[in-house]
Structure formats: structure tokens, C-alpha cells
Amino acid sequence: MLNFKQLHHFWNVARAGGIVRASERSGLAPQTLSGQIAALEASLGVTLFRRQGRGLVLTETGQMVLDYAEEIFRTGSELEEALLSRSAGRVVPFRVGIADVVPKSIAWLLLAPSMALPEPVRIVCREDKLERLLGDLAIHKLDVVLADSPLPANMDVRGYSHKLAESSVSLFASAALADTLAGDFPACLQQAPLLLPGNEAAVRAPLLRWLEEQRLTPRIVGEFDDSALMKAFGEAGAGIFPAPTLISAQLCRHGELRCIGELPGVGDSYYAIAVERRLSHPATQAISRAAMPPRDG
């Protein structure tokens, strides 16, 4: 059976970058820490560290064990905080980062289940570029990040992507602009004003590919990193803009916007990115359990 005391000593040494530094931080003798790690390696039948010069570096197996140890002790810390908050009658904070390319209506749909938990939750939302949000996630300033793509492979951030929802994409325009479009969809897009999401939006590339396949050349009149700002320009009649079909009814409910048409083969997905392989925060678990099934419309 895994000895969690030994695992905790290993975790501290790995985080400190060596036995001597871990000894200074913990007040335990280096010999004690070495003995605890040796006992853990013996019980697991693996080598966790290898010597490099005068120091120690993690083996590949050691890195895997560290990943699990991080998750185990972080979960334990969150459990302790949650129990203390409950006993003190405090509201548990739920710190969410929302990538600025995620439509606000989608963010609300995904986060709504966290507001209906039996235990009160205070949701704290922060919107920013995905890269900056993932940096805050890595240092535990955020509990989860909502994005339109999984964790980028080229980012030096340890995390896990949990798919929550997917939707096809449709094009929308103000009623006044829609009335000026000539012909049926998609031919009506030729030379029509178009608003594009920024380079970081996952839907941008497939949308441009679809237009190329259809041999359509609309006039690109604006590009937006912020989906809400793009929608505001669209509502004002500046151009046609893409949005998830999932929120079509919500966008068009007042009659100020119209759905011009759905884009076959163009879709968008939404993810909860967390530092845990198994979600532990009750609010994150709630949004994962309520994740919408895949759909095209």
C-alpha cells in the first residue's frame, strides 16, 4: 500500500529541487529525507531520481509520480479548505478564467450548473487571453479555464482538457443588413461585409477554409479578439458574423439579428482546462456532469 508520508517527502524534495534545499525548508535531516525516498522507491519498485552532476533530477517515472502527487496533495488541500469553509459558514470561491474568444452566452450556459449547487458558491470570473489565463491556472490562481480549444501542446503548463460541449457554427446579421443581401445562402455572402474572430479563435481557420471551398470572397471589414465586441458590431449592422448555432435562438429572440445560414462541417467545441486529471472542485464537477451532448444545431 502506498505510504503517503513517504510520498509527501518525495513531493517536497521534487518541488524544492533537491534534498538539501528540502531539508532546509522542512527542518528534517537530509539523511531522513534520503531514507524516506529510498523506502518509497523500494516499495514502488521504481527509480524516482537520478544523479546529474551534484544534484538530482526526476526520472520519467519520477515525473509521472510527481504529477499524481501534485494532484493528490492539491485535492487534500482543497478538501481541507472546503470543510473549513463549510464549518465556518463561508461561501466557497470558484475562480474561472474565460478565454476572450468564448461567446458570453456559451460561458453562461457552461457555468450555470455551478450556480445551482446545494452548497453556496461565489463565482469569480476573469476574461483574458488564453495564454495568460493558463499561466494563472498553473500557479493555482484559477480553478478552471473555459476555452474553445484544448490545452495547446506547445505550452509549458501541466493541465488536462475536459470537453464540455460542441456546436455547429452559423452566420448572423442584423435584420437591416440581412434585407440587403442578394440571393440565397451561401451565394449571398459574395462581397458581403464579414466580421471575423481573431487569430486565436479555433473557428477562424475552418471558417476561412469553408469560404475558400465555396469560392466565396466576402469583404472582411473587421477582426475581433473579443467575441462580445464582434457581436456588438454585428448587431449594429457592420457585418455578418459567426456564432455557435447552439445560441441561435438566444441571439435572434428579439428580432434584431437573423441567422443567415449554418455552415456545414464548421464547428466549435468548448473545454474546461484544469490542473487535475480528475476534477475535484465541486463547481467544476457540476459543469462537467451537466456537459451538453455533442450536437450539430
UniProtKB/TrEMBL annotation:
- Keywords carried by this UniProt record: Activator, DNA-binding, Transcription, Transcription regulation
Taken from the record, one Pfam family name reads HTH_1
Source organism, top-level taxon? Bacteria
What Gene3D superfamilies does this protein's entry cite? 3.40.190.290, Winged helix-like DNA-binding domain superfamily/Winged helix DNA-binding domain
Specify the HTH lysR-type domain's residue ranges.
2-59
Which SUPFAM superfamilies does the record associate with it? Periplasmic binding protein-like II, Winged helix' DNA-binding domain
MF GO annotations: DNA binding; DNA-binding transcription factor activity
Q: Which residues form a coiled coil?
A: none
GO BP term (any one): regulation of DNA-templated transcription initiation
PANTHER family in alphabetical order: TRANSCRIPTIONAL ACTIVATOR PROTEIN NHAR, TRANSCRIPTIONAL REGULATORY PROTEIN NAC-RELATED
Similarity field: Belongs to the LysR transcriptional regulatory family.
The name on file for this protein is: Transcriptional activator NhaR
Organism the protein comes from: Pseudothauera lacus
The opening ranks of the lineage are: Bacteria, Pseudomonadati, Pseudomonadota, Betaproteobacteria, Rhodocyclales
